[in-house]
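Dear Dr. V.,

Thank you for agreeing to look over these. As mentioned in my earlier message, I'm a first-year student in the group and I'm still getting used to reading structure tokens, so any feedback on how I've presented them would be very welcome. I ran two proteins. I've put each sequence directly above its structure. The first is here:
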Amino acid sequence: MNWNDFQHLTLNGKTYSQQALLDFCNEAPQQHMNELGSFLSDWFRDTDTIALKTSGSTGVPKKIIVKKQQMLQSAAATAAYFNFQQGQTALLCLPMPFIAARMMVVRALYSGLNLICMAPNSNPLEIIDEGTQIDFAPITPLQLQSASNTKRIKHILLGGAPISENLEHRCQTLSAQIFHGFGMTETLSHVAIRRVNGVDRSNIFYGLPNIFFHSDERGCLTIDVPYLENRIVTNDLVTLLSDKSFIWQGRADNTINSGGIKLIPEHIEERLLPFLTNRFFIAGLPDEKWGQKIVLLIEGNPLNANEINGLKELFKLHLNQFERPKEIRFIEKFKETPTGKIQRFHTLQLSLDDKEFR
């Protein structure tokens, strides 16, 4: 499989060869088209490798170098899973500097898909032309959150963040077949997928063909990908069901040790989700008594005293004594990556200078 064999791309119904494609993207007035042109220029450059940038959700974004052939092999795995056919339509509405958008372009090059391109925004499904049908739409959970319907979409692949319980429940009313992908820049997008709605819905992630999973001594997932040279070691805590399937539990780097009890914030957040409308997350701060104390950080303006007391009563009803937040802090705006993920560490640091806590 040679990257030089993939020189044509169809955008919004029109197929372009290499130079015409670059000219069209670079001369377009929209920034997202210019960014697409920049990536394609790198792709067509006479070198076997290309630079990618990680999202920075758990640290500082970093640059990694990968082989174009590896990206094509990842694209082939997705094409086989979703049975892509030449001429089918796919949505491109994610930020081009990051892996999800770049892999969508490579999938279109590989499978001969027609890319419907639009600027990244919080609700792309609402602005698709009335007569346009989309076979495949990779979007973030945030981009699906506000969608009123998915009647013009066949398959939706969610990625980039966990899916909230509320969104998962609402997905059951949507007509599109909705999937959740697990992956990262280092794995060149998703390596495992679970069905979110329909009769096959499940909380179990299943590996794509020839992808195998193990867990290390921390209980974190490790991944063997046939087109990557080294085993990928993650900080994702999982319940490993087999070498082809797992249930995601949370992030090891988020784990809190409070009074000698190890707590996974994502488990606590799941039980608080029905009672909080604003974005929030659970974190740990150093504490002389507990080692780390549980803190609830809420995005937006502070609640009043009655609302705070109401929350504390909910803590007693739904959380055990070790899980109950010792403080509630309010941050006007959470720190985010360019792809919309909450940067927990940076937001927590921001909260240390904020006086609004109870």
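The second protein is here, in the same arrangement:
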Amino acid sequence: MSDSPSLSHLAADGSPRMVDVGSKTPSARAALAEAIVRYPEATFQRILAGDLPKGGIVEPARIAGIMAAKRTAELIPLCHGLLLEQVSIEIHPLESGEPAFQVLCRASLTGKTGVEMEAMTGAAIAALTLYDMTKGLDKGIVIEKVRLLAKSGGKSGPWKAQ
């Protein structure tokens, strides 16, 4: 028996499988994920000034991210359908002053499996919605760093990105 991590979604023969969480004890679980949406400077200033043909971009992106987190199991083949207790999306300019938005998605529940994928899906779809709402201004928009920032709960306990 190896002590090295294994891929939980692969059976011994290498075929894909959904992880059996039936015998796990429910526990409080939470995750925080981010996505960064970078803009050309002039485009970003136009967005901040509210000079947009489609109107406000933050609220549609927030709603899209929440809806996506709730539907993660429909999008990612081997994810469990979860009864999320909370999902929130925050969108704000980067503190560094760079022409970009940071999208943060927090998800939590009491359950048998984690919510990392739900948080990452929410952040990614909110970022894609920002892109969609502003692509008419400039095609040079870049979505990057869709990543997990932190998680808590479960057998592996808390984890935080460096």
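From my reading of the second output: The chain has a mean pLDDT of 88. The domain at 27-150 is CATH 3.30.70.640 (Alpha-Beta Plaits). Does that match how you would interpret it?

Kind regards,
E.
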